[in-house]
Specification:
Distance between the termini: 24 Å
Number of strands: 0
Largest sheet: none
Strand content: under 5%
Structural class: mainly alpha
Oligomer: single chain
Number of helices: 7
Length: 129
C-alpha cells in the first residue's frame, strides 16, 4: 500500500478546507483527486472501489465504511490498499513507498539504520547497498 497516497486521501477534507495554490500539500491533493477521476473515467475503478474511496475521503474509518457498504471490514481494507497502490503506480515518483523510504534515509540521526531496514523489509523492497 502507498502510505503517502493513503494519508493524502484520508486528509483531503482537511486539505481542501483552506485551498492554497502555493502549498505543495494542496497541489498534491489536487493531483491525486485528478488521478482518481481519470481512473474512474477510464473504467479502471469499480463502483465499490469508488464508494470506498469516497467514504474514506469523507472521514469514515474502515468499520464505518463496511457498515455503510454492507461488506466485511477486511474487504474494505483490501480494496483501499489495492486502490491506493494503483494510484501510486499511476502517479509514480514521489508518491510511491520506495520514494518515501528513500527520503527517510536522509533524516540522519532521527531514525536508525535498523528502523529504516525494518521499514524496507516490511514493504518487501530490496535496497541497493
Amino acid at each position: 500500500m502507498s502510505w503517502i497516497i493513503e494519508e493524502y486521501i484520508r486528509r483531503i477534507p482537511y486539505i481542501m478546507e483552506e485551498p492554497d495554490i502555493e502549498d505543495e500539500v494542496y497541489n498534491n491533493a489536487i493531483l491525486i483527486l485528478k488521478c482518481i477521476e481519470d481512473l474512474s473515467n477510464q473504467g479502471l475503478l469499480s463502483d465499490t472501489e469508488k464508494d470506498v474511496l469516497a467514504a474514506v475521503m469523507e472521514g469514515y474509518n474502515y468499520t464505518e465504511v463496511s457498515k455503510i457498504l454492507h461488506v466485511d471490514r477486511q474487504t474494505v481494507s483490501l480494496i483501499f490498499d489495492k486502490v491506493t497502490d494503483r494510484i501510486a503506480y499511476v502517479m509514480g515518483g514521489e508518491f510511491t513507498d520506495a520514494s518515501f523510504l528513500d527520503r527517510i534515509q536522509t533524516l540522519g540521526d532521527s531514525i536508525s539504520e535498523k528502523d529504516v531496514s525494518q521499514l524496507f523489509n516490511r514493504r518487501g523492497i530490496i535496497r541497493d547497498e
